[in-house]
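Hello, quick one for you while I still have it in my head. A protein chain has come my way and I'm curious about its shape. Can you walk me through what the tokens say about the fold? No rush at all, and the record is pasted right below.
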Amino acid sequence: MASKYYPDNGVFLEVLADNTNAIKFYESIGAKKALKQRGESPCGRHVDEYIYTWKSQKF
């Protein structure tokens, strides 16, 4: 549905920096690490995370 309204936009997600299994998976399906940042979890704890992106909505 998003591709109908935003055909040129990619996809992104945030992943915790210590979640190595998720990182390996996302990279195996073409994700690119775009940014490392310090985020805040829902409980207020500060966590290191990466932003991963795909240029296309087709993976």
Observations:
- The mean pLDDT is 86.
- DSSP finds two helices and three strands in the chain.
- Residues 11 and 54 are 5 Å apart (CA to CA).
